[in-house]
Specification:
Blueprint lengths: L1 H9 L4 H18 L5 H8 L13 H6 L6
Helix pairs in contact: 1-2, 2-3
Length: about 70
């Protein structure tokens, strides 16, 4: 997340505003994924690497639409 925070501050946002923007993006993403997967968003935002093996079984295909994929 530090890389994203750095990019946002390079655009002119303060550290506080960058952190708020990242938190807002995380809340938005969590509102778009099923409840069992929301913890993964929290893990990424905290700098952890989530266990993506639980996304098997078509979940990745369902999430593609969230990011504009086909």
């Amino acid at each position: 997340m530090q890389e994203l925070r750095n990019k946002l501050t390079n655009l002119g946002l303060s550290e506080e505003m960058a952190s708020q923007a990242i938190q807002l993006m995380g809340e938005y993403l969590k509102s778009k994924v099923p409840t069992p997967y929301q913890g993964m968003v929290d893990q990424v935002l905290s700098g952890e690497s989530p266990d993506l093996s639980m996304l098997a079984g078509g979940m990745m295909d369902k999430m593609k639409g969230l990011f504009g994929g086909k």
